[in-house]
Amino acid sequence: MSHSLNEIEAMAKRAGRGAGLSWGLAEEAAKGTRWLSSFGFPGTEMLAELLELNDQIPPIDVSPVSLSADLWHAPARRMSPLIAGASLSDCAVRLLDRGTITMQDVSLPLLAVPFMGGAALRLGVPVAAEWEGARLATDGKQLCVQGEPDALRAGHAGLLVFSAPADMTGKREPVMRADVSEQSWEKLGEFAHRTFAPATEESRLRGAGAGTNDNS
């Protein structure tokens, strides 16, 4: 299936809200899914996988315990890449001061990468993310990629290291549309459907048709 980037962003936002993400995080997740898709990555597949993985889990359980620690970790021993990325963006100045920020046990680390773009633009220098077998860097506009597909698509990173400033090597060109698996689109649709209010007897009576009076 081929979808425009606008369609992907809209679906991802609704799915994020349906999965219980805050408005702000759902919007960031949608922008990130669009961004990854624009560079040829399976953004919708990875978002669907993450939402299913963390479904019904309190956000605090997959959030960093402390942003001032040398090694960020989450109570559930797996950190949401969306929350990790948003936290990294908030700590952009600290990243530049320290040179690196390291996170432990991050699910689907590629989903944290889009958040580097905002950090890079604020800092005015490229930011990189590295985990086993993969390295990506961005200045907020261009994306540089190094690593095999399996490593880039990893479901888990024991250590995820962000650094700034970073070298830009291995530039990848963006696309205008993205191929999306039917299964991931349906899964996002299921999460998005949760945002719809359930029908009540009153709403059914107000809807099209005669309701309980068929006028026959």
Explain briefly what this protein structure is.
This protein is of the alpha+beta class and 216 residues long.
Helix content: 40-55%
User: What's the shape?
Assistant: globular
Strand content: 15-25%
Q: What is the H/E order?
A: EHHHEHHEHEEEHEEEHH
Secondary structure category: alpha+beta
* Total number of helices: 9
Number of DSSP-assigned strands: 9
Distance between the termini: 46 Å
What oligomeric state best describes the polypeptide chains here? single chain
User: Biggest sheet, in brief?
Assistant: 7 strands, mixed
Mean pLDDT: 91
Number of domains: 1
Q: Give the low-confidence spans.
A: 206-216
For the CA atoms, what is the radius of gyration?
20 Å
Task: Write out the strand line-up for the largest beta sheet, numbering strands in chain order.
Answer: 2-3-7-4-5-6-8
Commentary on this structure:
It is a single chain. The chain is an alpha+beta fold. It has one domain. α3 crosses α8. Strands 2-3-7-4-5-6-8 form a seven-stranded mixed beta sheet. It is built from nine helices and nine strands. The C terminus is likely disordered.
Feature tags:
single chain, 216 residues, alpha+beta, seven-stranded mixed β-sheet, two-stranded antiparallel ribbon, 9 strands, 19% strand, globular, disordered C terminus
Describe how the helices and strands are arranged.
Layout: E1 2-4, H1 5-18, H2 23-38, H3 43-53, E2 71-72, H4 81-90, H5 92-98, E3 100-107, H6 115-123, E4 127-131, E5 134-138, E6 143-147, H7 149-152, E7 156-163, E8 171-172, E9 177-179, H8 182-193, H9 201-206
Parallel strand pairs: 2-3
Antiparallel strand pairs: 1-9, 3-7, 4-5, 4-7, 5-6, 6-8
